[in-house]
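Per reviewer request, we include the raw input and output of the structure prediction for the construct analysed in the revised manuscript.
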Amino acid sequence: MTTTIAESELILNSRGAVYHLDLRPEELAPTIITVGDPDRVKAVSKHFDRTEGTYQHREFVTHTGYIGEKRISVVSTGIGTDNIDIVLNELDALANIDLSTRTVKETPVSLQIIRLGTAGSLQESIPVDSFVVSSHGLGLDNLLPFYTYQNTPGELQLLEAFRGQTRMQPSAVRPYLIEASAELLGHFTEGFHTGITVTCPGFYAPQGRVLRGALSHPELIDQLTRFNFENRHITNFEMETAGIYGLGRVLGHQCLSVSAIVANRMSKQFSSDGNAAVERMITKALEIIAGIA
C-alpha cells in the first residue's frame, strides 16, 4: 500500500516548491555543492559557463547551472546541523518524492552532495590556508540519533576508540560517526589533507572557546588533538559535516566535505586572507567536480 505524505509533514509553497529551499524538482541538479554562507553561492556560481536559474528563500540560496556539460546546483545551508536537517531532507524530497502525489518514488535517486566550507585545524601540521577532505564526520551535535541508521563495523570500531579516548559527559552528547563516500573521496587526493572531521553544535564552548561562559569540557581540544586509532587522527572541526554524512547514510546519497582551514587552534593562527583561501579551494574543487561522471 502506497503511503501519502501529509501536507503538514512535507510543506509545499504556492508554486509547488519545497518550502524552505523554494525549489521544484526540475530546478535541482543531481550534483550539489553546499556552502554555509549564502553570499558564497555566487562565489561558486561565477565559475559556471552558464546559469540556468537562481532561487532564494530566507538563508537558502540556490544557483543551478553548468560547467561544460556538468549540471551543478550550489545551495547555501546556513550554519549548523539543524539547518542541514532541513536542507538534506528537502534535497532528498526533490529527488525521491513525487510532489504531485506526495508518494515516495519506486526507484531511489542517489545525489552527489559536496560541502565546500571552512574549518579550524586541530593539528599543527595542517596550516591555515590548506585544504582538508573529511574521511569521516564525527558528530557531537545529536542530530543523527533522531534517525534510524546503520554503522559499518569499521565505523563502530573507530567510534568506540573515540569514546574510550575522549571523556564526554553522557548527558551532554551521544557521539556518532559516518564515513565519506569512498567514490567521491577518491577524486580528492593531491593537494588535500585527509582525516576525521568533528562537527560541533556551536562555535564557542562546543569548540573550546572561552569568553564569559565556563567550559564543561575544558580538556576537549587536547583530547581531540591527541586522538589516534590505527594512525587515524582528527584533523579539523566545524559545524555541518557529520550531519551531511549522517543524513547521506540515512537517505542514500553520496556525500563529501572539503574545508579551507582558516584557523589553527594549536598554533593560535588565523588566516590573513580567508577569502582568498576559500576561492582557491572553490577553483580546485570545481575542476575536480566537473570531471566526475
